[in-house]
Amino acid sequence: MKRVTIIILASLLTTMAAMAQKGLNINRLFDGRYKKAVGATEIIVTGSQASEIGLTVYHSVSVTDKAQAEIIEHLVVKDGSQAIDKEVEYRNGQLYYGFYTMQTRKHNNRYIFFLNQNLARKSPKNVVTLIYMEGEASAEKIKKLIRK
Amino acid sequence: MQDLQRHITSRQELEQLIERYFDGLTTVEEEAALRACLARCPWHSESIEDAQVVMGYFAALGKYQRHSAARTTRQRIAGIAASIVVVLSVAVFALWHQWQPMDECVAYVNGQAISNDREVMALVENDLSSIGNASQGMTAQLSSVGEALELDNE
């Protein structure tokens, strides 16, 4: 009986973990690794502040480290392959800009933005940014938001 | 055992058997005979009364332990069921918590936490501005490509 109990508990915990990780590849970047990292910025906005810009979740990461930037680009491209809509620009074989509309989750729209400012023509900067947004806002609204 | 009971013919013999019992020297048969004898004992002494009390206690404890075993099984099942309910409740709460993100507005810049809402939202605007410029640049590029194509077709 004790063995059965342990098996049941282990199964439940495994299921929980699996469900928590279900979704996007970029989620693993939001595991807290950038909170103490030098040369990195992580922004998390949820709740009332997020709803002021029409979102339920705003989560971004900006890095200056080249190795981290490559990891981010790799994961973004991986998720981007599953996007239902995308706008992308490559420069010199690298992803410069990406705007991906992902499958909805619990009636919320989901968007991924990527920008490698190292590849900007005017005033390049050593920064690679990933932004994840979730909310009821349509893609058009989001585009208006970023172009304000 | 009946032979043994027949041999306990005096108070002295009984007290000797009681002494052997408390010294842990009696066999199972001797113990049973002692118990039977004490149950209808015609003699009285302090050691006989002590033995009657102790034997009576062990008899009662035996009944309690059998009853306890059944209770323990039921308790165990109830405990397991309660554990499962607790785990399920935690799982449901954790999942619900995922669906309902808590109010959070924080930024970590070079390892330093910033929790001032205004400062955090300023960083958000900075992010969006960079993305917006790139996006507009792309749109402008597409427009100029479109214009060039139109000119070409004229």
Could you describe the 3D structure shown?
The complex is a heterodimer of chains A (148) and B (154). Chain A is an alpha+beta fold. Chain A has one domain. Chain A contains four helices and six strands; from the N terminus they run H-E-H-E-H-E-E-E-E-H. Chain A has helices at 2-21, 48-51, 66-80, 139-146; strands at 40-46, 57-63, 85-91, 94-105, 108-116, 128-135. In chain A, strands 1-2-6-5-4-3 form a six-stranded antiparallel β-sheet. In chain A, strand 4 and strand 5 (108-116) form a beta hairpin. The N and C termini of chain A lie far apart (63 Å). Chain B has 154 residues and is mainly alpha-helical. Chain B has two domains: 2-68, no CATH class; 107-153. Chain B is 79% helix and 6% strand. Chain B is built from five helices and two strands, in the order ααααββα. Chain B has helices at residues 2-7, 11-22, 28-39, 46-99, 117-153, and strands spanning 104-109, 112-114. In chain B, strands 1-2 form a two-stranded antiparallel ribbon. In chain B, strand 1 (104-109) and strand 2 form a beta hairpin. In chain B, helix 2 crosses helix 3 (28-39). The termini of chain B are far apart. The mean pLDDT of chain B is 78. Chains A and B meet through helix 1, strand 1, helix 2, strand 2 and strand 4 of A and helix 4, strand 1 and helix 5 of B.
List the helices and strands and how they pair.
The complex is a heterodimer of chains A (148) and B (154).
Chain A: H1 2-21, E1 40-46, H2 48-51, E2 57-63, H3 66-80, E3 85-91, E4 94-105, E5 108-116, E6 128-135, H4 139-146
Antiparallel strand pairs in A: 1-2, 2-6, 3-4, 4-5, 5-6
Chain B: H1 2-7, H2 11-22, H3 28-39, H4 46-99, E1 104-109, E2 112-114, H5 117-153
Antiparallel strand pairs in B: 1-2
Helix pairs in contact in B: 2-3
